[in-house]
Write a structure and sequence with these properties.
By secondary structure, this protein is mainly alpha-helical. The chain has a domain of 79 residues. It contains nine helices and no strands. The longest helix is centred in the middle third of the chain and has 30 residues. The protein is globular. The C terminus is likely disordered.
Length: 180
C-alpha cells in the first residue's frame, strides 16, 4: 500500500482491539510476579512447585513457537485470536480458584498453547494485513500501544488494589464468600 493511501478507520479500531487483547492476554501468566505471596497462599503450593509451573509455561511456549506460525498461515486470524482469548480467559478463571499443583500445571500449559501456538502468530498476521502492505505503519502503532499498555495497566492494578485490598482478593477468604 502506498504511504499516501488512507487506511480505513475500522482498521485502526481493529488494531486498538488487538492491542488491548495482547495487553490482557500477557498479563495473566505474569500476575504471579506481582502477587507472588498471595497466589502461593491461595494455591497452597511451595516455591518449587510454583516455579515449576512457570518453567512449564516457558518450555511449552518455546516448543510451540514454530508450529504457531504454521497454524497462523493455515487458519484465519479471525478464528485464532478469539479462540486464544477464550482459552486464556478459561485458564485464568481456573487459576483464580487457587487450584492444586496438577491443575495449575495444566492451566499454564493451556496459557502457553493459547499464547504461542494460536495468539502470537495470528496477532502478527492480523496486524500485517491491516494496512494491506508490509504492515510497518500498523506494527509501529502496535508497539506504541504496547508502550501505553505498560504505562496504563499498572495503574489499573493500582486502582484495583485501592478498591479491593490485594491480600484479601487473592486469599482464600475472598473465594470462600463467592458462590460455588
Amino acid at each position: 500500500m502506498d504511504n499516501n493511501q488512507k487506511i480505513p478507520m475500522k482498521n485502526y479500531l481493529t488494531l486498538l482491539i488487538l492491542v488491548v487483547s495482547a495487553a490482557a492476554f500477557y498479563q495473566i501468566p505474569y500476575l504471579r510476579w506481582t502477587f507472588y505471596d498471595g497466589m502461593m497462599e491461595l494455591s497452597g503450593l511451595n516455591n518449587t512447585q510454583f516455579g515449576l509451573t512457570m518453567s512449564v509455561y516457558g518450555t511449552v511456549s518455546m516448543i510451540l513457537y514454530l508450529p504457531g506460525g504454521i497454524i497462523a498461515d493455515k487458519i484465519s486470524s479471525r478464528i485464532l485470536v478469539p479462540v486464544s482469548l477464550i482459552v486464556t480467559g478459561a485458564a485464568g478463571l481456573i487459576l483464580m480458584t487457587g487450584p492444586g499443583f496438577g491443575v495449575q500445571m495444566v492451566s499454564y500449559i493451556l496459557l502457553a498453547a493459547a499464547g504461542t501456538l494460536t495468539f502470537w502468530a495470528a496477532l502478527n498476521k492480523a496486524v500485517r494485513n491491516l494496512d494491506g502492505g508490509d504492515g510497518s505503519r500498523m506494527f509501529g502503532l502496535l508497539e506504541g500501544g504496547a508502550v501505553w499498555r505498560r504505562r496504563l495497566f499498572p495503574r489499573f492494578f493500582w486502582l484495583f488494589s485501592v478498591c479491593v485490598p490485594v491480600r484479601w482478593a487473592v486469599s482464600k477468604r475472598f473465594w470462600a464468600v463467592m458462590p460455588r
